[in-house]
């Protein structure tokens, strides 16, 4: 997988999403239940707004001093005998990981969930190098078994699939013979995966946060697969986005609280682990620890007008409340990062050529901004993208002309007054029984689905009423 | 108290009865009304579409139009929320920043003004019927006003309010979003219409005409017999004088 999951046009992708009742049903039920759970988990923490502000401050502070904390992290990891590698590009990142694997002559790899490894196309690179790679997060495993169906959610990658579909994937690909109960499906996957953990030469995990002063990484999981991936194989490679770092355990505690509650409505997930190179005298854990810090465009975002997007802790809460995501699903975004945060960061990482529609796929309802645990002004960032897209003249010439005309019209009462007077007579040409029935593209988009009355007649307008009244009161 | 009316371009173009109702309610509550005639539009359609420079023309016009007003009151949480964005947009602009801040500080959405400035929750309205209320996203999230419409509606005699399921979900209007991404918008408004119909209410009330034209237009297309009313029309529903003056104006969705 790479950042881009679907090369078709945005319209084709959304039509697919809208036409998929299974996906829409799965997504809307998940949204509805997560909303309640998230709210109750947030309330139990006390003043949620204060926690959000704290989360925002921690993220902003860390980003501001990112060079310092990354330096500290590197020193501490090396001091403990681990390795750290700073990859400028996705090719450097996946190339470094491939080299370790080749050098160790490793064949079997287990992986726990990591979005950044998708971004750097690591799976592809490793499989091409001849490795057998197994995703061990249940959702990711389901997708892998379904011929690498792309993830549709950053926390729950297989959210678009219901249990019946999962049962049929397991039956078809793995010879599963049980029913469609989640317990039985999970038990089956667990049996298969347990063996994979025991056989693996290398374990690859993501990283929720690196803890700078400890030289360690923090993993937040529910299935325990992250810990098995990190603990059983002789070599552990962790991959992190360059910005995912906290100064100490104290800040980690705050962010984990925000993350678990926002992501899945839990006070804490089942496993919150802090893992690093084994200390001297420790008999368990991997012999070799590598941390790959991925830039891949992030340093361009750092300090730019989109800096706040780097505050993201990948909780997925913005996806869980987004009414657009609700109806089109994750695949329609054509990126491993869907939803509101995806519409902000995907064009930053992948460019406007492929992703110029994403910032417009929002009604700017700001549900995302409202729910973000680290206060990223997501809908404002979408407007910033729109401004850039307009500045680069990537919108249609007709739209630009319309906006220019409307801009003049809506800034001058003299012009607007004329338009008001003309609106009703002009609309008669395109109306029947007081309703507009045809018109240019923009109007058609509206009236295809909705009734629209004609604009009011000049003599019936609010301004005419005010004028009449003023005249009347003088008499 | 002197109040300048900000009618909004949607009311000017489509629904004069909302403006009239707002004026009549405010006058009944003792306000002295004026209407700075050079006002047009808050600039939101162009701004939200990314046309920053084009939108600034409209914004500057509004700052000048209301320069001498004490209070500016409009029948739209969304348009007033746009006013509240002006200081951010004109930050660092020596000519306009202070004007932007001044406009923000004196601008109120209609229900917000009645409750928070006038300190009134019972305007003496009465309306027989069952209604549900659609919160507009911009009013609740950007303007941050979640309470005042409900405080006022609670006091309307004879009006039975039914809760709306998933009331936090956007109706799919989103200004230019509804015409730029009509297929997605249609799914959103469809779901909203379903939730409205489920309440069994015969009136859908909101404080934003954009949402109401969207949901009302879809309800009408689907043949749902739900009438839409702006909250100003609801709160004006008792005044005998108003009834006379309003004659000839159909409700917003006909």
**Largest interchain contact:** A-B, 67 and 73 residues
DSSP E strands of chain A, number: 12
Helix vs. strand class of chain A? alpha/beta
Q: Stretches of chain A where pLDDT falls below 50 for ≥5 residues?
A: none
The H-level CATH homologous superfamily of the largest domain in chain A, spelled out, is NagB/RpiA/CoA transferase-like
Oligomer: heterodimer
Number of helices of chain A: 23
Number of helices of chain B: 14
* Overall CATH architecture of the largest domain in chain A: 3-Layer(aba) Sandwich
Number of strands of chain B: 8
Mean pLDDT of chain A: 94
What is the terminal separation of chain A in angstroms? 77 Å
How many individual domains of chain B?
Answer: 2
**Major beta sheet of chain A, specifics?**
6 strands, parallel
Task: Please characterize this protein's 3D structure.
The complex is a heterodimer of chains A (475) and B (254). Chain A is α/β, with parallel strands linked by helices and 475 residues long. Chain A is elongated, with a radius of gyration of 26 Å. In chain A, the strands form three sheets. A six-stranded parallel sheet of chain A has the order 1-10-7-4-2-3, sandwiched between helices. A four-stranded mixed sheet of chain A has the order 8-5-6-9, sandwiched between helices. In chain A, strands 11-12 form a two-stranded antiparallel ribbon. Helices cover 52% and strands 11% of the residues of chain A. Chain A has helices at residues 10-18, 21-43, 48-64, 66-79, 90-103, 115-119, 122-128, 138-145, 163-174, 182-199, 225-231, 249-264, 298-301, 317-321, 323-328, 339-350, 352-355, 367-371, 378-391, 397-409, 413-428, 441-447, 462-474, and strands spanning 83-87, 108-111, 132-135, 202-205, 209-211, 216-221, 235-241, 245-246, 271-275, 288-294, 431-432, 435-436. Chain B has helices at 9-13, 16-28, 44-48, 52-65, 77-89, 97-106, 110-117, 137-142, 148-154, 177-180, 182-199, 209-221, 231-235, 240-246; strands spanning 2-5, 32-34, 71-74, 107-109, 126-134, 157-162, 203-206, 227-230. Classes of the chains: A alpha/beta (475), B alpha/beta (254). At the A-B interface, helix 1, helix 15, helix 18, helix 19 and helix 20 of A face helix 1, helix 2, helix 3, helix 4 and helix 8 of B. Chain A: Residues 1-15 have a biased composition (Basic and acidic residues).
